[in-house]
Every structure is written in C-alpha cells, then in structure tokens.
Amino acid sequence: MKVAVVGATGMVGEVMLKVLAERNFPITDLLLVASERSVGKKLKYNGTEHTVIGLTDAVAAKPDIAIFSAGGDISLEWAPKFAEAGSTVVDNSSAWRMDPDKKLVVPEINANELTTEDKIIANPNCSTIQLVMALAPLHEKYKMKRVVVSTYQSVSGTGIKAVQQLENEIAGVKGEMAYPYPIGRNALPHCDVFLENGYTKEEMKLAREPQKIFDDRTFSVSATAVRIPTAGGHSESVNVEFVNDFELNEVRRLLNETPGVTVQDNPDTNTYPMPIYAHDKDEVFVGRIRRDETQRNTLNMWIVADNLRKGAATNAVQIAEYLVENRLV
Fold first, then answer.
1. Residue 147 backbone phi and psi in degrees, to 5
2. Which of 18, 223, 232, 315 falls between 20 and 30 A from 4, CA-CA?
3. Rg for the chain (alpha carbons), in Å?
C-alpha cells in the first residue's frame, strides 16, 4: 500500500503520521509531501527517516491513497491530479465537503456509502465530526428537528501561528498575531471569516455538513462558533429538539453503546468532559446530559473531542482504513 501524506509538515499532518503509526496502517511505501519550501526536509515515521517531496513527484509516484491536509486551495488544484493518476484522495480541507458529487464521511456513520468510484472523499469539519458522532444514535432513535450549538474551540484549530500567539501572551512576549485581538484571557466569537448573512464560515459548516452526512434535510442546525484560549480540544454546548420524546437513561445507554463515543456524566463526582482530558484521545466525550425544561422533547448536552485527532487526522485515517479493509483501493 503506497500512501502519500500531503501537508506532512503541518500540525494536522504531524498528527496524521502519529495516528497512522499507532494504528499500524498497512504502508509499504510512504510519501511525505509538502510545499516547495519544505522539499528535502527529513521527517521520521516509525523510526525511519523520510525525505519530503513535492506535489509533482508525489502525483508521478501514483500512491494508492493520498491523505491531504494542506489547505483548500492546494486540495482544489491537486486532488483531481492525484485522482486522475489513480489515487484515492481523503481530503481534510473544506474544498470538497459540499460538492454534491463528493462523499462527506464520518466512518462510524456513513462509510458504507463509499465505492471504488469515489476518488476524492471529504473529511468533515472538526466541530462537525464530534457533533454528528453524538447526534447519530439519537437522531436514529428520536429524529431531530432542530439543533442549536455553541462551540468553544481551541487555538490549534487555527494553526501553529495561533498556538504561538497564545503561548507568547502567556509568557508576556510580543509576537505575530493570528487573531485581530488577544486570545489569552479572552473569547473571540469569530471562527473563520464572516459571510454576508452575519455568520462565519465555521458556523455555516456546522449548519450544512450534518445534513449532508445524515443525508437528511428535515432538521436544521443553528451555530455560534467561539475561539477560546485552550491549546487543544474543542467543546460544544448542544441543544437538540426531537420529534419524539426520550428517557435520559436511554439517551446515556445509546451514547455509551456508540463506537467512538464515551459518556462522562456524573454531577455527583464532578464528572464531565473537558478538553484537557480529551487531549491525544480519539473518543468523542459527552456529558452534562439533561432535559431542557423549557421545551418539550429537547435535550442539552456537552460534547468534547481532540480536534486534531478525531476532528481531523484520526477520522481521515479511519476512512483510509475502511477503503483498505473493503478493497475499495
């Protein structure tokens, strides 16, 4: 299995390599791919040193699978070139997510829709992935009508420049700013760029991507996305109105039985999900599960996950695993 990791020198690319190694992905030939300025750099994978190559050489090598995390513009230009060369692309950018001809995949939910014809597969937004992982079993049982989600997103979702800004502010050092304001001791209701409707792109991803993943337009999602001064891990406050009523114990049972979801929900022992405990883990953690007492058939819960792992790298690797296991590449 010849595998290319495009964007191997970036934050998500580094985590992808770590996840591929941890999960013993069946690689016989690994291509580490990055921009021209990184070509020639040496990176280690499983103790073996590899030289970073450019995109043209990577396409010519015709990998079986190319996992992209290099930004939307790179994906738009180069994913079709890899696909034309016979590679199956798993893309972590927003470039292909809402393309009607491309699948948007969370393996636990809809990987069974994939076929050999799918040469470019989209990885959802990090905040979307953890949201739909928790919603999937509940939607199947009770049928969602409306979801209201407020996010509390770590600076790692912006990238290394934002992590450096936070570290500089903590250390009292002046440096380059990733955000228009300080992030330390602050909360910015501003993730990605603002659109004409007053929402940010991140908020609209949360509104649209779940409908595509579930292949269901009968429910709606309204989102507010906020950046907070945590280094890793996204959190979400979620309010879900269902068509049918529920019992809280059954909700907890359904979530507990969902692969990839872990319930942490015991107020008596102060047990609830937090990003500090989700760090470097692949599970989606759910807690603060309670009935909305102001409206019928409505549930509140708190969802936390490591945005660089299940929110990005791990989900992409799981898609690649599904392709291999089901002989789709």
1. -125, 130
2. 232
3. 20
Please report which helix (H) or strand (E) contains residue 3, including its range: strand 2-6
> Could you report the per-residue pLDDT of 71-118, keeping only the tens digit for each?
999 999 999 999 999 999 999 999 999 999 999 999 999 999 999 999
Q: Which of 258, 265, 263, 185 is nearest to 228 (CA)?
A: 185
**How many distinct structural domains can be found in the chain?**
2
CATH number, position 222: 3.30.360.10
Same domain, 219 and 206: yes
Residue 251 and residue 141 share a domain:
yes
Amino acid at 211: Q
The pairing of strands 298-305 and 284-291 is antiparallel
Q: How confident is the model at residue 126 (pLDDT cuts 50, 70, 90)?
A: very high
pTM above 0.90, yes or no: yes
Domain with 303, as residue range(s), is 127-307
Q: Are the CB atoms for 178 and 162 separated by under 8 Å?
A: yes
- Per-residue confidence (pLDDT) for residue 260, from 0 to 100: 98
Do 118 and 68 share a structural domain? Answer: yes
Known catalytic residues are 126, 234
- Only one residue has tokens 């692949």, namely 282
Which DSSP string corresponds to 43-64? Answer: EEETTEEEE-B-HHHHHHT--S
Distance spanning both ends of the chain, measured CA to CA: 9
The tokens describing 287, both together, are 């807690």
Q: Are residues 278 and 159 in the same domain?
A: yes
Statement to judge: residues 118 and 176 lie in one domain: no
Same domain, 30 and 80: yes
The C-alpha angle with vertex 86 and arms to 33 and 61, in degrees rounded to 5, equals 40
